[in-house]
What does this fold into?
Amino acid sequence: MKGLFITLEGPEGAGKSLQTGRLAERLRASGREVVLTREPGGTPAAEVLRSIALETPLHPRAELLVFLAARAEHVERLIRPALSRGAIVLCDRFIDSTVAYQGYGLGLDPEQIRSLNAYATDGLLPDLTLVLDIPPLLGFSRRGETRGDNIERREDSFHERLREGFLAEARREPERIRVVDGTAEVEAVAERIWDHIAPWVSRSKPETS
Ligand code: T5A
It folds into this structure.
């Protein structure tokens, strides 16, 4: 594929939405087509599945399958077509959130989740994944609100486990997954992210060529 697929991951309130938005602006200013999207969601059907996953208490395996169904829809209807036209796709959460939340957090088998992720995406992997690492309680305190959805309301130890899960995945796939200190100032985080992304952007094929 001609495009570039970048995902941002991390615990709640790590700064993913803020940083993907800034990054999209910076990349668009350089003339690239950028598709900014999120998981779960990104297409009308996947947004419906998002509401189910976040608002309805489900059995862990059912919860996992809802996230995967949303992902299959998202990949085939939005991400893969955008990459085929040469766009840069920036996705707020993707496969590593499922390994971290439903695997390390809920206790489902991470290896089985990796296989199911590969099925849901038909083998599509991000070119680069940045984990914004932050202590979960700092992430919650930044937002200054009560924990809203079904998953956010889980106990603190669940959120600690999933943070460790992201770091473990980064050790497992050091080429694809890079860890960025999400506790730094917004500008410093943005520059660190850019340092990781810039070489990929210059190598990837522009939309117009
Ligand atoms: N999920 C998702 C699964 O369980 N399995 C899966 O497979 C997938 C894909 C998604 C939920 O679904 C779960 C994970 C989640 O629980 P969501 O609403 O999309 O739900 O949740 P988040 O992605 O966590 O969204 P958040 O808004 O909570 O976190 P962000 O996007 O990381 O944080 P952001 O950018 O909104 O920033 C939060 C606040 O912090 C400030 C911002 O201004 C904002 O106020 N901030 C900073 N403050 C100080 N210093 C910095 N460096 C800052 N960066 C941001």
Residues 10, 12-18, 38-40, 54, 67, 92-93, 97-98, 101-102, 142-143, 151-152, 185-186, 189 surround T5A (CB under 6 Å). The chain has one domain: 4-203. The CA atoms of residues 29 and 145 lie 33 Å apart.
